[in-house]
Every structure is written in C-alpha cells, then in structure tokens.
Amino acid sequence: MDKLEIHYTPKHGSWLNIAEIGLNLLTKQCLQR
C-alpha cells in the first residue's frame, strides 16, 4: 500500500500540472483571437 501511495501522489501532481498547462494554452488562444 505504501508503494501505491508514493506512486499515486506524483501522478496526481503531474495530472494537476497538465491541467494547468492546458488551461494556460486555452487562455492564450482566447487572448490571441
């Protein structure tokens, strides 16, 4: 269980990073239009 928790935390963090990058790209596209 410990190993799974350690694995899960970075995955969750990276997913949040991807979401943030995606939102940034969307806002940039909206501003460019």
UniProtKB/TrEMBL annotation:
It comes from the Bacteria. This is Tc1-like transposase DDE domain-containing protein.
